[in-house]
Write the C-alpha cells for this entry.
Amino acid sequence: MKPFIVGVGRAGCRLTDLFLKEATGRVHAEGLLVDTEASELAYFSHRNRFLLGKNLLDGNGTGKNVDLGREAMEADSYAIVENIDRVKSSMDAIFVISGIGGGTGGAVDVLIEELQKSYVEPIYSIGILPSQEDPERALMNFAQQFKGIVSHANAVFPVDNDSLKRVNLRGSYSSINNEIARHFRNLFEVGEYRSREELGENVIGSSDIVNTLTGVSSIGIGSLDVSESGGLFGRRDGGADKPGVVVSLTEEATRKMLHDFDVKTAQKALVAVSGPRRYLDFLGSIPARLWLEKHIEGCEVRGGDMPSPRKRLTEVTLVLSGIRKSDRIRHLYHLGKMLKKKGGYSEDVTEIAHAVPGHPDSRFPEEVQRGLRGHKGTGQDHQGERGEGRGGGHHLMVSRME
C-alpha cells in the first residue's frame, strides 16, 4: 500500500517523522507535518512542513485548547490540501495521525472533512488516545472530538499508549512510537512486491485493505523468531504443524492489538502471514482465516501470505475492523464528559474515574449505572454525532459509547 501520511500536532508529527525518515523494505511513505507550534516543527529535518494557524496563533500553539485548534484548522485546511498536492506522487490512501486529546491534533475532524472533499482515496485516522499521564483537558478534548473523527473518516485506528506500556513495552514514548510504527509498516507492506519471489500462494493487495477498513479498527501482530526457536518446530510451538503455528500467532495478534476491545464484535478482518518462504506452508493464511471466521461476528475475512527472504521473523499481521464494543474507549469518553460537566480540574482524575458508570469501583448506585448504560442520547450535543459525512454511520455501539 502506498500511504500519504499527514502528522498533525506534536504526537502526530513525531510518529509521522518515523515513517518519513526510516522508510525500510517495501514501505516508501510520503507525508506532511502540520503543527501550530513553530518550535515543534523546527525539531524535524523533513522539509515538508506546514505551520498551521500562523495568522491566528503566530506559531505559539494552542495550549490544548481544541476550539483554537478548530479555528486554525478551518482557516488553513485547504492550504494543507494544496501542500499535499505539491508533494505527493502516487497514493492509495491518506492516513492522518494525531493525538486526539491535543488542541491541534484533536481538531483533525475538520481536516478529514476537507480531505474527503478533495480526494477520491480513502481517508483514515490514527488517533492517540489520552494517557493517564495527560492533563484532564486531554480527556475533555477526546470526549468532544472523537465522534466527529469517527463520523468523517473512512476508518479510525485508536492507539492506547497505556495499553502498549502495560502489555508490550516498559520503555519510553520513543519505544512506544517505534512499536506503533512497526504495526503500520506491516500493514503498508501489503501489496508492495519487489520481485516474483515475494509473491505468495495467496496474494493480497491494497484493495483488500480498503475493502476491509471501516469504522473503528485496530492492528495486532503475532511473531515468531525462527532463527532463535529452532524453526517452526522449535520449543515455542511444541512440535505443532505449520497451520497450527499460524493459528497460534493469530491468537497472539488478537491479544496485542493497539487498543483494548471486544474482538468478537469485529465485523471484518484481514490477515497477512509473512516470513521466510521456507517456513510458510502452502496453505499460507487459510488456517488463520478459518479461525477468524469462528471468532468474530462478521463474515468478511480476507487474507494472504507474503514471503520475505530478508525477514527472520514469521509474523501474522491482523487487522480487525468495524469494531462495535470497546470498554476502554467508552470509559475515556464518559470520563471526559464527566470532567467537562464538572467544569474540569475540580476533582482528581482518579476520583472522577471511580464515578464513571461501568468502572469496577464506581460509586454510582447500580440502578443509576443501568440507566446511564441504557441511555443512548439524542445525537444533538456534539458536532458530527449523527454520523454524517462520507465516513459516517460506523458502528453505533462505539460511536454512541453504549
